[in-house]
């Protein structure tokens, strides 16, 4: 497992939900002169996605090399086929990640883009309309999906570009020797200086060299926390180490707050609730966001450490799927993200400890069954899963 390499002098802007993200992304694509890499879990068939697709096709038609990677499961079998056909007709190159589970169960859950090796985007937003649910039902949402991404300028963009280029090659038709040579090249750090303002590093999770990198970044931040830790995730089912880190931080006086999404999947909610009693007893504050779909995977610790990315606090993100976060050591950015999370907390409903102190036998049985099923599933698909 390689350590996180930080680069200095990055210019990072927080983008709140699609209202900020999609105009910035499309503007960067429309300004592209020679190259675009875009990687997303979902590339939907809606008006917002159509605008991004048209921008990519316009770029290709003016001679820009455009390469798009989507996840076969997240985007859907039929949509992946249609998208490939439409992109091919417009000279956009497209590859689907792991069709028909040919490379195991892991999914490509990352959301990244690099334009002309100068402008980068990383976050939690798929290419999908903010007002539509991201499951198969595609139901209207009561308010825009609550999510975040960042736009990046500076040395970190080179690091992201190298990873996107490597991903494109990996999922193509590469011979074994070419794969080995590409792997050796990826071992060379592309980070710049390690001191200065706006330090930031790309933190990846895969099943080869970065199996626990994202989880370790969270563990280190929580271990060093002295005042506060705000963590946000739509799906909450962490392993024992991360749960322990949350509890220990709260017990030594750190104000630990979890802002969690609920209402998407009933079974997922039951699994999350199975963790509540011990966390609440340790002093962790839990707030459930019910205003609309919460999809953000962000955190701020002590106003000097922040992260934005695609990784949830569950076994799939931490132990199975390919994920990408950016860790930022910058006080101004951390304060900006903190304010956004605090607004989300204000819109949420705090979980009272007494509500989980004396659960009925039925609730205990329901949460226990959900946890048991989740644990069995994770033990089947994640080799290094620990409770």
TrEMBL record:
Superkingdom of origin organism: Bacteria
Pfam families: PLDc_2
Catalytic activity: 2 a 1,2-diacyl-sn-glycero-3-phospho-(1'-sn-glycerol) = a cardiolipin + glycerol
Annotated PLD phosphodiesterase domain residues: 104-131, 290-317
UniProt KW Lipid metabolism keyword: yes
Any one Gene Ontology BP term: cardiolipin biosynthetic process
Entry keyword Lipid metabolism: yes
Enzyme class: transferase
Key words of the record: Cell membrane, Lipid biosynthesis, Lipid metabolism, Membrane, Phospholipid biosynthesis, Phospholipid metabolism, Transferase
Active-site residues from the entry: 109, 111, 116, 295, 297, 302
E.C. number: 2.7.8.-
InterPro entries in alphabetical order: Cardiolipin_synth_ClsB (IPR030872), PLD-like_dom (IPR025202), PLipase_D/transphosphatidylase (IPR001736)
Signal peptide: none
Family annotation (PROSITE patterns): PLD
Membrane topology qualifier: Peripheral membrane protein
Principal subcellular localization: membrane
GO cellular component: plasma membrane
GO MF, any single term: cardiolipin synthase activity
Function as written in the Swiss-Prot or TrEMBL entry: Catalyzes the phosphatidyl group transfer from one phosphatidylglycerol molecule to another to form cardiolipin (CL) (diphosphatidylglycerol) and glycerol.
Annotated family: Belongs to the phospholipase D family. Cardiolipin synthase subfamily. ClsB sub-subfamily.
Protein name (database record): Cardiolipin synthase B
Organism: Collimonas arenae
Gene: clsB
């Amino acid at each position: 497992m390689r350590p996180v390499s930080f680069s200095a002098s990055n210019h990072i802007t927080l983008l709140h939900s699609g209202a900020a993200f999609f105009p910035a992304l499309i503007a960067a694509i429309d300004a592209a002169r020679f190259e675009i890499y875009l990687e997303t879990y979902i590339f939907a068939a809606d008006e917002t996605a159509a605008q991004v697709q048209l921008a990519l096709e316009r770029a290709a038609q003016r001679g820009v090399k455009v390469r798009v990677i989507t996840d076969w499961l997240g985007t859907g079998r039929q949509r992946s086929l249609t998208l490939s056909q439409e992109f091919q007709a417009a000279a956009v190159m497209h590859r689907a990640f792991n069709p028909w589970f040919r490379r195991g169960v892991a999914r490509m859950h990352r959301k990244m883009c690099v334009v002309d090796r100068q402008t980068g985007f990383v976050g939690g937003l798929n290419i999908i309309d903010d007002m539509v649910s991201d499951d198969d039902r595609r139901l209207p949402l009561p308010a825009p999906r609550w999510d975040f991404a960042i736009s990046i300028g500076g040395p970190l963009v080179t690091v992201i570009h190298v990873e996107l280029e490597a991903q494109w090659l990996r999922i193509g038709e590469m011979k074994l020797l070419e794969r080995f040579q590409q792997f050796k090249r990826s071992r060379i750090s592309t980070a710049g200086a390690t001191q200065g303002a706006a330090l930031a590093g790309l933190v990846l999770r895969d099943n080869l060299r970065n199996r626990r990198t994202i989880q370790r970044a969270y563990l280190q931040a929580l271990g060093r926390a002295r005042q506060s830790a705000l963590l946000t995730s739509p799906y909450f089912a962490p392993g024992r180490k991360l749960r322990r880190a949350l509890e220990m931080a709260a017990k030594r006086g750190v104000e630990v707050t979890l802002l969690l999404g609920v209402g998407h999947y009933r079974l997922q909610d039951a699994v999350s609730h199975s963790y509540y009693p011990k966390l609440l007893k340790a002093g962790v504050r839990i707030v459930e966001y019910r205003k609309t779909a919460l999809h953000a995977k962000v955190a701020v610790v002590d106003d000097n450490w922040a992260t934005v990315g695609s990784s949830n606090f569950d076994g799939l993100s931490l132990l199975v799927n390919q994920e990408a976060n950016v860790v930022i050591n910058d006080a101004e950015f951390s304060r900006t993200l903190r304010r956004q999370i605090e607004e989300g907390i204000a819109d949420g409903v705090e979980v009272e400890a007494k509500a989980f102190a004396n659960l009925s036998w039925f609730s205990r049985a329901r949460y226990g069954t959900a946890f048991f099923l989740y644990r069995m599933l994770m033990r089947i698909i994640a080799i290094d899963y620990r409770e």
